[in-house]
Amino acid sequence: MTTQSTELQYLPSDLKRELLPQHVAVIMDGNGRWAKRQGLPRIMGHQRGVDALKDLLRCCKDWGIKALTVYAFSTENWKRPQKEVDFVMSLIQGFLRQELREMLEKNVQIQFVGNLQALPTAVQEEISRSMAATKNNRSIKFTVATNYGGRQEILQACRVIAQKVQEGILRPDEISEELFENHLYTAGTADPDLLIRTSGEMRLSNFLLWQMAYGEIYITDTLWPDFDRREFYRALCAYQQRERRFGKV
Ligand code: IPE
Ligand code: IPE
Ligand code: MG
């Protein structure tokens, strides 16, 4: 653990516990740029990105945030060089192998969302194992979006619902927001209150399109491998200054 993370082991006293986001989502972007700046191959940025993620998960647990969802691999990321894709897949596998014990100890529930059937078999097995082992854990829900696309998620929900209508199990007028949400990958998890994107890009890149209808967005120029507790603290300070109006005056 770094000096900084020890320093910020507990929720900083100027943050109001009652105004913390219940659910934080993160687009972990900028690994490639981080590596380039250090004169290293892109994959080294992904490697360091995993360290940043491990500490963010511990931090959320330490500070009392109940759900963390991170974007690890998008449906569009298959278009990257094969070597980079393979490396990201092996990092996911390695992460699960190394962290499962601590997740069990700390009562973390891990779940994966996305089109998981298209992932390499070894990765799928590791995912199933860790999801099954932690399914009753309740201190924090940690969701990893892998081969995830917001549009694909909405389409697969539409297909399942259409099938139910065709079979006469459901009437079209019964399709409510609540019913629709129950068919998304994220069923059972409340929408994110705060979405953080690192590396300055101001777009959603197909992440949580439905769920982010009213979520607050925080963008920092910091590259993902450099995102630490102090950066997270800044994001939470900014969030606590926001006025969430949900369309009201
Ligand atoms: C995000 O970092 C990680 C993944 C998409 C897997 P990038 O790899 O997109 O980093 P940049 O945007 O090229 O710097
Ligand atoms: C979004 O980042 C996906 C992840 C962080 C996993 P990208 O780097 O793929 O997004 P774009 O290409 O800049 O929109
Ligand atoms: Mg990127």
UniProtKB/TrEMBL annotation:
GO terms for biological process: polyprenol biosynthetic process. The keyword Transferase applies. GO terms for molecular function: ditrans,polycis-polyprenyl diphosphate synthase [(2E,6E)-farnesyl diphosphate specific] activity; magnesium ion binding. Mg(2+) binds at residues 29, 216. InterPro entries: UPP_synth-like, UPP_synth-like_CS, UPP_synth-like_sf. CDD domains: Cis_IPPS (cd00475). Binds 2 magnesium ions per subunit. Its cofactor is Mg(2+). Coiled coil: none annotated. Gene3D superfamilies: Decaprenyl diphosphate synthase-like. Belongs to the UPP synthase family. NCBIfam families: PRK14830.1, PRK14831.1, uppS. Homodimer. Catalyzes the condensation of isopentenyl diphosphate (IPP) with allylic pyrophosphates generating different type of terpenoids. This is Isoprenyl transferase. It comes from Anabaena sphaerica FACHB-251. The lineage of its organism: Bacteria, Bacillati, Cyanobacteriota, Cyanophyceae, Nostocales.
